[in-house]
Amino acid sequence: MKQQISYKNEHISLEIGPSEGVAQVNGEHCEYEFTEHNGRFYFRVGTRQWILANVKVEGTQIRFDIDGQPVELQVKNEQALLLETLGMKAELEQSVGDIKAPMPGKVLSIDVQQGDQVQKGDTLLVLEAMKMENEIKAPIQGRVKTIQVELGQTIEKQTLLMELE
To answer: How far from each other are the two terminal CA atoms of the chain, in whole angstroms?
Structure first.
């Protein structure tokens, strides 16, 4: 998890990697301790300790108070961070029923047919981009009106993939 926080007059860049107990704070590797007691969370790095209270998690949004100061963070996985770095958004930018490619790539599979009923979150197709498979999911419940791409087709960012109604 990587996050930047502006707190009081400090800018803290925190990266907690796959190895538990080691973090990177402002570029320096250091051990940390994260504990909970009576609904409060304590984050300690070296001799510095921050108290996190009123922690609320809603999807990928985390809200909390750190030493009394309100902070709101968006937790992003590696894919979302990579897409953001490349100037792309993880969410599909579209009108209600237009499914557009969030990035350039190759169509690996088309999991629906014209006329199929789909539920929000159903996988519509799989797009290969940067050697990663990305499932394109239905943003709404509806019926597949048209499919604009073919299996194996190479497409550009914002190409119309299919329409839902």
So the answer is: 37
Residue 143 — pLDDT band, cuts 50, 70, 90?
very high
Tally Cβ neighbours within 10 Å of residue 40: 14
Check if the beta carbon of residue 92 is closer than 8 Å to that of residue 100: yes
- Residue 79 has, within 13 A of its CA and on its CB side, a CA count of 12
**Model pLDDT, residue 21:** 53
Multiple choice CATH, 91-164, 2.40.50.100, 1.10.260.40, 2.60.130.10, 2.30.30.20: 2.40.50.100
**Structure tokens given for 165:** 């109604």
- Widest CA span of the chain, in angstroms? 62
Provide the residue count of the chain. 165
